[in-house]
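For the sake of transparency, this paper describes our internal protein records without simplification. An entry from our holdings is shown next, in its original layout:
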Amino acid sequence: MNRWAFGLGTLGRDGLAALVSMFLMFYLSDVLDISGAQFAAISGVMVAMRIFDAVNDPFMGVVVDNTRSRWGKFKPWILLGAVAWAGASLLMFADLGVRGWGYVVLFTVVYLVYEVSYTINDISFWSMLPALTEDQAERERVGAVARICANIGLFAVVVGILPVTSALAPVLGSDEAAWFAVVCVLAVVMLAFQAITLIFAKEQVTAKEPERTRVLELFGVIGRNDQLLWVTLSMVLFMTGYGITTSLGVYYFKYIVGDEGAYSIFAAILAVAQITALVCFPLISKRLRRGQIHLLASALMAAGYVVFLFAGTSLPVTGVAGVLLFSGQGMIQLLMVMFIADSVEYGELKLGRRNESVTFSIQPFIYKLSNAFAVAVVGATVLWTGLDTATSAADVTPGHAWLFRMSMMVVPMLLVVVSYLVMRAKYVLDEERYAAILAELTRRRADA
């Protein structure tokens, strides 16, 4: 039951999150058509807000870990965050009749509310995962279902956003109205699937908590968990590269390939590749150790970036590159969730307390910090290559096209390689080490 009750909760939430993380900048530059100065200002606001909110994530983790209620410590915050997040998303894409620099001010306020509410939901939701099971194999299965559902929701948006909004715009009277209609649907879907988790997911792992975690202890909980810190560094590098590539994707097909319609076809191919990798992950994990899977996935991504770089405007070659890239990406993203989850037991062994939410507050911290870095690169790339004023591929010079490719493909490839090397050198929680930790914790809990 937990496998599906938890997994289905990601279906709507990742679709709504993808709309903002991957298409908000395109919406601002190509739908609202704000000025270059306003685009630069909003890019700066998004970077600053993401970093500010990322730093606050561990404090939210303390709040969740200290929650004691009849519904547990996770579900009250999942509900509150989901409702507030849906409302902020609607406001972000609603036509409130404000334009110019007044819109920049309004956007700043709404974006802050969006970030905070997303934090509340994300930390409480994902930190429930270690409480569902301590069995590594079952944890992988729960995580795989969650990532598969998340990617179905995500790629439904990636594949459908441009054709759906193009079809709705004539019916609703404007592109802005079409995008707002999509957001309304996504918000409802997100709340519906989150309700499944709230009603049916049940905590199975409990540990005696000697006392509440004080805010001053927060930095010790994170700082003394060296394995969590190495996972954090590795994943920030990886997700920054991934975020750069995905955020520049729609620009790539519109201004480099010159075929905006091909973006949805390409995204559909990537969806199949990534979801297939996630479906096969439990089978692969029976034959390969996690370290071997990580090496294989990183090699696939590196090869994909090389093929992508020299694909030119060939859509078949670009498709091959995409399959390599996103097959590897799907496996690595699931591995990173497992690495963080296993750090919960490692931290419990070292510190004598089980801080699921503080530990998993690192995941949204990673996503936000890496997204802030990615937004900075994307914003600079759009401005440096003149895409903010371009109307078609004919307006982009060959030099600017190669600068764009360097940002979208070479920089992310280097980040993926360095991310793997960090984990290879510093992460020690392999299968044997985790089993020994779990055995020791079982003995301690029995004694207690």
